[in-house]
Structure formats: structure tokens, C-alpha cells
Amino acid sequence: TSLSDIWGHDLEANTNFPILEKENQQFTTGFYKNLIIYENSNPDLSTDVYIYNLTTGEDTLVAGGTGSQGSGVTNGRYVVYIDGGACGSVHAYNLKKETDTIISPTGCHPLRISKNIVIWPYGAPGGTNIYGYDLNLGTPLDIVIEDNFQESPSIFHNKVVWLHYITGALGDYNAIKMKDLETGEEKTI
Q1: Is the peptide bond before 110 cis (omega within 30 degrees of 0)?
Q2: pTM
Q3: 143 pLDDT exceeds 50?
């Protein structure tokens, strides 16, 4: 029996409806147009990455096997995911060619994607930085390399937003920052 499934909500009819019902647990991690990316939890507590096409009903395994694969996101051309759990190697699966490429040996949850840029946080000496990858150019990106902690990144078009803090202690400095990837301009929101 299923412990959790993926459901939708019809705004006009104000009703819920099942999208995907399977054994084990499914957690949505990304979507793009008619594509839903989700993690399927296995009985051994490992996870696999699937893509579900709402239009065709096709449910396809993108990454599975030994260990955990998760945090999947898509731009409709690639599914990018982490192999290794919350942190591990970052992979880009080309949906058309059905090829899997490691785009970074290190990355952590959450992955975020907009157009052809995917971003993620990763620990560095004294804090956390934000890295990325341009899927069109095939090049790694140093998005935010600073002292302290840059976490919980999100991206929309060419703007990256994240939480910046020093230690996370009560009363400590916290700020929401934004960087324009085209101009390099960074500001505190």
C-alpha cells in the first residue's frame, strides 16, 4: 500500500484528484509544464528519481539503483539530481539522448533550475557557498563565493536569491540577498 501519493487540485471545480498512486512514498521535487519530477522511497530507505508526464501518463525511472538519488529538478530538456542523498555528485540526465553526465562531484540539496542554469549550495571552509552549472555551455559556475553561510538558494531567469547568515545563532545577522547573473550586481533585499 502507498504511504503518500501525488495529488493535484482543480481550481475551477475546487476538487482534489490523484495524479500518481504507487506503492511506497512519492515526494514531488520539481516540475516543468506537464512534467513532474519526484522521489520514490524504497523499502530499504533509498530513493529513486522519476519523471511523470501528465499528458501521456508515462512514468519513467531517471536514476535508481544502489543508494539514494534525489532532489530532482527539470527544465524540460534535462533532469538534474543528486546521487548520494542530501549531498553527493550532481548529475544531468538528458531526456532526449537518455544520457547521464556528472556535472559536479559535490553538491547538496536543494537543487534549483531556471532555463539552462542549475544551482545548489555546498559546504566550504567556514560556511556554505552557492555553485551552479550552465547546461547549454557545459560550464561550472561559482555563483556566490563569500565568507559565512549562503543557503536555500532559488533562481528565476538570471536572478539568484539566497539566505546569508554568520552563525545561525539567535539574534545573529541574517539577510536575504540577490545576485543578477548577467550583470554580477549583488544586493541585500
Answers
A1: yes
A2: 0.92
A3: yes
